[in-house]
Write a structure and sequence with these properties.
The chain is α+β, with helices and mostly antiparallel strands and 179 residues long. 64% of the residues lie in helices and 18% in strands. It is built from four helices and five strands; from the N terminus they run E-E-E-E-H-E-H-H-H. The protein has a five-stranded mixed β-sheet with strand order 4-3-2-1-5. The radius of gyration is 37 Å and the shape is rod-shaped. The model has no long low-confidence stretch (mean pLDDT 88).
């Protein structure tokens, strides 16, 4: 029975969520599977991958062939590297301790890369929020300045309109006092 490691689509329209499964290659995409190995959520940034590394490596040892996308996921999580190192141990090219040390060094390096990417994304988001806030404050300040200008113009226009009336009233008072 030819076994494939592939993705089964779940989730809703426009929001895919995948299970990474080992399945008979003749079964339907979302049909029967032999074992659920992990999950893959491409909706997050960076994509969230939860993989049972031991069972994935075991299926690779047993001859399961990953699809192209599954191969990328397995490579990202280190299952293919672990399978490769185990092959070296079986052939006698390295010891189990050397293979474990190489895999541990690789996982630490990978974790550092992922943390750097997440930090970069959070910094970009913080900068974008700061720019948006600064633009909003500028718009509000401009709006307040425009409102003050309109209010001052209204007061000046009202004063100009009242000035002739006040002059006429002042002249009447002068005429009354003179008479």
């Amino acid at each position: 029975m030819p076994v494939k490691i592939r993705l089964q689509r779940h989730g809703k329209k426009g929001k895919p969520f995948y299970w990474v499964v080992a399945a008979d290659s003749r079964s339907k995409r979302d049909g029967r599977f032999l074992e659920k190995i992990g999950t893959y959520n491409p909706n997050t940034n960076p994509a969230t991958i939860d993989l049972n590394l031991e069972s994935a490596v075991q299926w690779l040892h047993n001859g399961a062939q990953p699809t192209d996308t599954a191969k990328g996921i397995l490579s990202y999580k280190g299952a293919l590297l672990k399978h490769h190192l185990d092959g070296g141990v079986r052939k006698g090219a390295l010891t189990q301790d050397q293979a474990d040390a190489k895999f541990a060094a690789w996982t630490e390096e990978k974790a550092a890369k992922i943390a750097a990417k997440e930090e970069g994304l959070s910094n970009e988001q913080a900068e974008a929020r700061a720019k948006a806030l600064a633009a909003e404050k500028k718009v509000n300040d401009d709006r307040i300045a425009a409102a003050k200008k309109v209010e001052e113009e209204a007061i000046a226009a009202e004063a100009a309109a009242n000035a002739p009336e006040e002059e006429a009233a002042a002249e009447e008072n002068n005429e009354e006092t003179q008479a």
